[in-house]
Amino acid sequence: MLTTGQGTVAHRRVTPLRYVPAVARLFLSPPDVGPRDRELLLDAFDSNWIAPLGPHVDAFEREFADFVGVGHAAALSSGTAALHLALVLLGVEAGDDVLVPSLTFGATANAVAYVGARPVFLDSEWATWNVDPAMVEEELATRARDGRAQPAAVIVVDLYGQCASYEPILASCAEYGVPVIEDAAEALGATYRGRPAGSFGALNVFSFNGNKIITTSGGGMLAGDDTALIERTRHLSTQARDPAPHYEHSEIGFNYRMSNLLAALGRAQLEGLPAKVARRRAINAAYRAAFAELPGIGFLPNAPGGEPTNWLTVVTLDDPTPVREHLEALDIEARPAWKPMHLQPVFADCEMRGGAVAEEIFRRGLCLPSGSSMTDADIARVVHGVHEALRG
Ligand SMILES: *Cc1c(COP(=O)(O)O)cnc(C)c1O
């Protein structure tokens, strides 16, 4: 409602025109921060380590690597920077092919373009909505049979907080000697057959963007067991400066390192990760229970053998548009599923294998508010809105 100072002229008190929302807008996945985040951020500030290096960067990397169960991690300015460096580190070059699931966020495919390589898009499987392992196998086997070059890498993405089907994917990639990059930007805290998301690739990518499971406002991590690769990540991400008193460079570097301020925030966020994941799972369970009786509504499946983080709860509907618009009218943010890369104008010239599954997920998928700071009343508000939209 709009309020103005409606007092009599005699009062002469002018209240500025302001908007007082009856209830706050409910966002898809807003940052979830508290006193501990503030404390560590201010600690970094007060220490004057206000630079892309410092004790919080080192500590965040160690704590993060331990959590994910990989040997090493390098803190970077974004998940996109981590994807770019992963491709550089694996020697992917102009003219190479890289296999990429079509159903993903644009950053995954953009990174392939940064190094001048060509993404070859693959369709999803219904079980996880992630890349179809049969398509990976078929692509690699066909290339081997035809005597064509293998892709320089395969990027596997763990969408919406659920791991891809790594057992068959890793077996195929190992057979043909193709390195795997895991894009676990949406899946920190998930597991697949007991192993953490972000531990399956030769290099593993995480994001701490404002809408992710934990956030540093913007930030990312590149993690892996290979000491030399992660050492090289730190070197390349700080302008590739060689040891010398002056600035000596023998290769092209990047300015991709994470700030110490943001690493402090990341450490506090990581402490809170188990609780944040538990809350996202509880939100997913609440939606499932609340919509169980509604006809025509489905969910992104929780595949057996995995424990997703439920970064976003995604429902499927014959026509999600009226539901999205009704929620929008209630000031509730909902968003279509990722638009497949093979349908994006910028990748129109790229090759695509299959596509029916990714296209149907895009046509029918709707992401609901899923942030770990949601209250039970917030969940009830979304549930009520969806019921209203579907029952009329
Ligand atoms: C968020 C995201 C990224 C990019 O991470 P940024 O930190 O925003 O650069 C990459 N891949 C996927 C699947 C994502 O969801």
* CATH homologous group name of the largest domain: Type I PLP-dependent aspartate aminotransferase-like (Major domain)
Number of domains: 2
Strand order of the largest sheet: 3-11-10-7-6-4-5-16
Number of helices: 12
**Percent range for β-strand residues:** 5-15%
Ligands bound to this protein structure = pyridoxal-5'-phosphate
CATH class of the largest domain: Alpha Beta
| Proportion of helical residues | 25-40%
Q: Please mark out the parts with pLDDT under 50 across 5 or more consecutive residues, or reply none.
A: 1-11
Q: Tally of extended strands?
A: 17
Shape: globular
- Amino-to-carboxy terminus distance: 25 Å
State the assembly state of the protein chains: single chain
Secondary-structure-based class equals alpha/beta
Care to describe what's here?
The protein is α/β, with parallel strands linked by helices. Helix content is 38%, strand content 15%. The chain has 12 helices and 17 strands. The strands form 4 sheets. The protein has an 8-stranded mixed sheet, with helices on both faces. The protein is globular, with a radius of gyration of 23 Å. Residues 1-11 have low confidence and may be disordered.
